Every structure is written in C-alpha cells, then in structure tokens.
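ok trying this again, last paste got cut off
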Amino acid sequence: MAGHDTNLFPTKGNLLQVRKSLQLARMGFDLMDRKRNILVRELMLLIDRAKALNEQIDKTYSKAYFALQKANITLGICEEVARSVPVEEGLQIEFRSVMGVELPTVTLEAAEEPTFTYGIEGTNSQLDNAYLSFHKVKLLTAQIAEIENSIYRLAHAIKKTQGRANALKNIIIPRFEASTRFITAALEEKEREDFSRLKVIKSTKEKQQLAREEEQQGQQSKE
C-alpha cells in the first residue's frame, strides 16, 4: 500500500488540495480506462480483418506464382515482360485519429482490372493470369499494410495507456487517499486537543472566578 506524502503538513489548505488532486486522479483513471477499452475494441476488429485479409493474400499469391510458373514454362523467363510493368506511384497515406492515436489510411489509386502493359504477341493467357493475380496482390498488400501498421500503433498505445492507468490506480490514487486520511486524522486529533485545552482553560477560569466570588463573600461577611 502506498504511503502518504511525508512532505505534506496537516493543514486544511493541504487537505483541500489533496482532495482535489485525488478527484482529478480518479477522473484521469476513468478516462484512461475508457480510452483503453475503445482502443482494445478497435484492435480486435483490425486483428479479425487482418486474419481474413492474410488468408486472401496467401491464396492470391499461390494463384499468382502458379500462373507465373506456367507462363515461364510456356514462354520462358518473362523478365523482359516484367520490365514493361510501370512503377506504382498511386500510393497515398493519410491519418485518422482514434482517441489520440494516429492510424494510417493507405489508398492505392489503381483500377480493379488494370490494362496490360505488354503486347499480345509473344505472350499468352497464363501470363495474363499471373499479371492480374499480382495486381490483386498489390491492392491487398496496401490494405494489409494499413491494418498491420494500425495494429502495431494501437498495441503500443494500449500498452502505454495501461501503464498510466496502473500507475494511477496502484500508486497515485492510493497515495492521495493515504495523504487524505493522514491529514484528516491529524486535523481531528488537533481539534480534540484544542477542545480539551479549551475545556481545561474554561474549567480553570471557572474555578478562579468561583474563588474570587468566595473571597468577596468572605470579606463582606467580615464587614
């Protein structure tokens, strides 16, 4: 259990300050806990999407390499044809914010059915199938890159948020609670001491007043 702050003097001002800090710490923990839950839900959704997408990519890659293998068998090595495929320059990356976590949005401006960049002469349908399959892999790879990068960022943010929530719950909040109890107990003890002191003072004054009255009465009786 965390102890109280030994540098705090038990005053009403410090008690109010500690109570305010305790309230803010509890609010901070609630926010961290809510943020963590939202990020975890987002992460689980992306993990499901990544799993399905990876399965689709594996099947598409297998189909593409099988078609390329058949094209190589029928046409020979397709190196010259591969050089005719232009470099992809339509990739764009933007960001969206989820509870302060910047997640990438990858956009690939490419047609679902691309035009062939090589001539019909000297090629066949197997090469066409390989070209179309690898084009589909390219589109899927852009999607999985977005999702996997988002998963990494979310996992890192969740770990960081969890650490802060744990620090608030297990260290900061108990420390403020202990300080509150310490100051409250010290002030109550001081009030009891002050009350006892006032009672003693009042009793002493009453005895002195009674003694003076008896003395005055004794003098009057002598007269």
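PB: full thing came through this time. The chain is about 75% helix and 5% strand.
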